[in-house]
Amino acid sequence: MALFLSACTSSVDSGAAGVRLISIEISAGEPQTLPNKTSLGLQVIGTYSNDSRTDLTTAVEWVSQDEAVVAVSNMPGSEGVVTGVEEGSAVVNASLAASGVSASIDVTITQAPLASLEVTPDLHSIARGKTVQYKAVGTLFDGIEWDYTEKVDWSATNANLVTIDSKGLATALILPETALDLRASDIGGDLQIVATFNDPYSKAIVSPVALTVRPAELDILVVTPGSLVMNPLIIAGQQYTAKAVFTDGVGYDYTKTVTWASDNEAAAMFSTEPGREGYVLVNEAGTATISAAGEVAGSTNIISGVAQLTVTTAALSSLNITPVDQALALGPGPTLAMTATAVFADGLTQDLSEQVDWSAVNQDLNLIDDVVVIDNNAGGSKGVVSGVAEGVAIISAVEPQTGMAGQTTVTVIPTPLVSIDVTPYSATLAKGNQLRFKAMGYFENGSSAYISDAVDWASAEPTKASISNEPGLQGVATGEGVSDGGLVISATDSATGIVGTALLVVKAANLNSVKIVPDSVDGEPVGSVVKIANNTQRQIRLIGIYSDGAEVDLTQRSGTLYTSGNANASIGNGFTVDCPDGSKKRYPYDAGLMTAVDVGYANISVRYKNGKNWLYPQPLGVSQQITAAVLDSITVESVSSVALSVNDVRQYKAVGHFSDGAIFTTQDITNQVSWSTDNIDVATVENKDIHSVCSDKPMPIPGRVMAVGVGGPIKIIATDTETGISSSVMTGFSPLQVQ
């Protein structure tokens, strides 16, 4: 690799009479550094008596004071080019004999740049859960090799299969816990391990090697307990377990399927009773190697595991309780695990922590209040002590077969609280929903415990988020209103004033569920099979229920989708209107509007697209019976008969009276009739207009009347002309006075 500075050929003569060369300077006098086996062009600038400056690089004579370190060229075209020969420093001189001027510069040669990288092992295969150590060896331009393992950047082309640390240790990842049921079909995968070195003097050097990740494989058969001392006078038998452990850490219990054996059956013999596989009975003193062997899924070979058992028949000499006279911090969290160790006359010992009976009393027998509580229940926590009050407690353990007892003391001391962490540290909560915060206390002795029920909880903005201090509900926050940003939730220890905080953002309420709400017909209850006349309509609404309890009509939302179960009824979902200006607008006002098409039964169902998920109401739909009833008459109703004032509005309703010859029913047909007045100078009435979506004006509401001038009484008229409800034109009207 060569680095050159450009130089121009020039004469020593400045070209002006009486002007002489005063000095020369090499590369501005700055010391130069370059890697070994690379080159750098130096430049000489001459300064004359008239202050002019000229490039004299090709005119001077170049000399290196140590050519074993730095070589310098005087060859035409490469004058002043220095090349690193080996690491070190040398002085380079430039001189003009005719003028008697010279200059020098220090040149330092550093380690040669990297030429190539080699990563080993170059082809490897590992099972999930296993590791492989990679090594990167770099070869420099001067042929020297160096260990670059901790200098390169390591990476894996498939981070879902393998991770690799900065020291080249690659680990084949195990399947996540949620995917352990896929282990049987796991096939692993292929990838590359890549070592990259970014050399400042050359382009990045990359060296990849192939790696194959195999599915998890059987690693070992673990027999537990691994080493044990037993005395048949105290414990007659012991249950052993055999677990096949795979490279991904997953273990399977093979206790009942392996073959158990003891190499000293006089000392220890396995039970042959069904259901007691792995249970050993001890008898005479001696030692035995306990073994388990058998076939395990995932292995084609018989695998085995061993454990060591020592049987003693010596008398029990003492029962030692440890730790001895230990201090225990008061407060939730800190505990002390006591151990009861049997010491036999022959010097052997056996852990009897699970076999003894544990108890604790206050050292001051005049006080009945507990200082500690100790677990005497089998199951892994037997002998565990917790402090409940300051003081000294006597801890006792009694071996039930011999009555041998041991004692020690535990002193419960106060433990100052150091800090409180509130989790989650940052959370988002929908209005109306709840979230439980937890307070973790950290104590001076290094212990920690949840103290959620011992702190005072508070919200910086109770109107946006409240938080409970009620027993059993401590730390439960409820979204009360949408927050502008994160609000502070705090947990305070009243004794010390120590506070822990978290941030909570309350967002708009979530849509939790939807329900279908059809308009009632003729007073029939919602949810019943309603009878409606053929060619009439019924509004089926979808109501959203939000986390804050609010109910919102979603009928006309674009995410609402209605369907009809058969051809007896049709139902709208909104449609696109071509506007005069060429644009297209959605007309949503027929959404959920069912039209009876033929006599029979019809079922309308609906669902709502909430983000990526569909919400379904319960029940899923509403049923109706479509009858052959015909329209007998129309009446027009209003909420009031009082005269209107000019510019006031009033909603009118058209009620159809139907009959099938025996049963009479009524239905709201406001949206199906044509509305008019007999005097538009006194009042106007609105009709459905699908093109109204093309303007910015409010959507007309059929049957809504506006008083425009004084007069009356006039008629508000509803006419059935196009719906097919009746076989002839039919009208109804209501009087109106405008004052």
Structural account:
It is a single chain. This protein is an all-beta fold. The chain has seven domains: 2-110, Immunoglobulin-like, CATH 2.60.40.1080; 114-214, Immunoglobulins (Immunoglobulin-like); 218-311, Immunoglobulin-like, CATH 2.60.40.1080; 316-413, Immunoglobulins (Immunoglobulin-like, Sandwich), CATH 2.60.40.10; 417-507, Immunoglobulin-like (Sandwich), CATH 2.60.40.1080; 511-627, Immunoglobulin-like, CATH 2.60.40; 630-738, Sandwich (Immunoglobulin-like), CATH 2.60.40.1080. 0% of the residues lie in helices and 52% in strands. The protein is built from no helices and 71 strands. The strands form 20 sheets. Strands 52, 54, 55, 57 and 60 form a five-stranded antiparallel beta sheet that branches. A hairpin with a 7-residue loop joins β20 and β21. It starts with a strand and ends with a strand. 29% of the residues are buried. Residues 1-11 have low confidence and may be disordered.
